[in-house]
């Protein structure tokens, strides 16, 4: 459970000698740690129950109480640690320093007493929570469910009238074709089709109609469901009962047959038969492997159909048929059929709201049928438009309490409960944002980390582990609006997020820990004033919310995440107050009205992410360099960092151009050894004094993955990255600079001229995938093109952009073997002046090319005939490429002096490739 995952390590840290706790207090904390570890083990056991045995109401109350308790303990410890942290800066000299130290000692004594009092209270609460659970728990009594099982709910779709399965005929015929067509030899082989897609698409319904159409052609047939927690003996007995029509083997009497014997008997039974078997709802590969052993692979033309939500399982089974959502037309047909009993169109007064509802259903049949059933139940009560609008507004809020909606959520929830507990928590965090809201991937991962949802793994930093979580969720979940509704409902049930959205406010039955403000309605604001907000850990304020409560530091004393992006009413005075939110890890001030950061920014010494683009800030205070935990700083514009910024040793990414205007700043930059992404602007001040400092800086940035350099870099008369670099004595103190950039995956460089050494160096980088080069001046003494060949072939490069007045490069066979996208920008006239009429760039030699995009810039300097000749030559070269790439050709008549001849050529799409 996420609350305990972050709390237990903090308790361990508190027990270290540096906090110098007295014996009694250490003993109390050790008691807390032991109790909470036992609770964690019990929570894991509860979370692993099968879907139809999810925690009973008493268990749910206990889980909620433990989570609440854990958060309160963590808040108390954080308040204590921030006041007694032995690593906090301390002035050692002067009378003022003596006074500060004396006051700190008094404060430490005060807070040690305070945490001792808190722990006594917490011990009492632990005892109360535990006793309450067992006081009302009835063990050993298996309560009969008062609702249909998940399997019954899923299979109930098969009882619908066939005509309600819109779009089913086309899909059925395609699956039948895959199963049955072929020559006589192939028809005798065993064939499998695995129908895969997320919950609610109608996989089971499709498998059923195929089964009904084909079963008459087979000796024996069976349709069995596996589900999330399969009872294999029951499945095999059920399969046997259906396959053995003559009941030659009375399976009900074989009580002693175990799983192995059942597999053997099934294989024997099917050995000489032509069978059709549907294995519905497989959740993991081991379940499929076990069932596969029971199905004889004879040459009698047998067929197997499987359904699964898990793509990995479908790949293992083979014969993938991927279910797609319904088209708009078929969605509308199913919707009207369910409500009106015919395919007639909605009445005009309901047409607009019905289209909105269908957009939210996103072509998912289960969602369409569910919402249509809700609407059909009150289709003739008068004022239908008001009711339909109310249902539309409630979709995604998790507040709709209709039986149809509850059943749909239970079906979809199987995928949710199949996730590990930590991934469930990460998924629930999406409830902080409304449907269809764009959440930057990097932000979401960092928020998970700061909230404590991400567990440490050996050999990876926390962000990398969070990336693994994200990729796993993307693989297993598609968060369409009905899934958002599901997780919002679960969040409401667990008091995970409190949302203020229009007239809807999620239920508040316990302390508010995460608050999402998504509206500016006055009624909602009044309700906000009635809430206790002192325990809020994450506050997301969306731009439609126009008022910011103040002072924030008093209202939200334990806040860790604060997102105020595009809240225009946030001004400088608010930021001064924010600087007293001592626990902040994440602060987003993007698009606010602030014009400066106050010196008090140094108070946020736990801050790890700061975003402040599209503001009036042009420089940073000197105290900014005291943010020693800062990892991610985004500002987008050009920024000069204050002197001493090398103290920001945790910094991993700089999202904007930092201006370098002195060699001393390069020394500071070289101290940021954790940097993974960097963009440098030398502000056209490059001179010989920068050379050694820059190379020394590069040698230290061993973690760098993305690098952008602008500023006409040169080494006197030679390029900075010239082929003579490694032979020059001036570079002998920094021999490792080249190896330090071996991990670069992205490079954006602006060069004065293009030398052979540049291509040799960059072509040998083993990880380079994205490369953009802008060349300011052509090499006038060159009489032939630089050839990129097999010696330095850019083995990993997938995207390449070159902008220059003259096209000085050609590609030999074997060059850039993985290149997918090429973007060339050059002038026809200047290229002709240097190379005559030679327009052979070797485009046919790029074996993996999928897109060639070429812009002829400053075309006004060439005749129309010259332009057409060049274009024809380029088309011919692309046509000769065996990979048949797409070809885009542009002309530009003006020269805006960007990138040595890229004037007028639109590169917006190119930037996306570097993200």
UniProtKB/TrEMBL annotation:
InterPro entries: Apaf_helical (IPR042197), Disease_R_plants (IPR044974), LRR_dom_sf (IPR032675), LRR_R13L4/SHOC2-like (IPR055414), NB-ARC (IPR002182), P-loop_NTPase (IPR027417), RX-like_CC (IPR038005), Rx_N (IPR041118). Keywords: Coiled coil, Leucine-rich repeat, Nucleotide-binding, Plant defense, Repeat. Residues 171-341 form the NB-ARC domain. Residues 432-487 form the Disease resistance protein winged helix domain. CDD domains: RX-CC_like. Pfam families: LRR_14 (PF23598), NB-ARC (PF00931), Rx_N (PF18052), WHD_DRP (PF23559). It comes from the Eukaryota. Residues 3-89 form the Disease resistance N-terminal domain. Residues 22-49 form a coiled coil. Residues 905-915 have a biased composition (Acidic residues). GO terms for molecular function: ADP binding. GO terms for biological process: defense response to bacterium; innate immune response-activating signaling pathway; plant-type hypersensitive response. Residues 535-886 form the Disease resistance R13L4/SHOC-2-like LRR domain. PANTHER family: DISEASE RESISTANCE PROTEIN RP, OS11G0550500 PROTEIN. This is NB-ARC domain-containing protein.
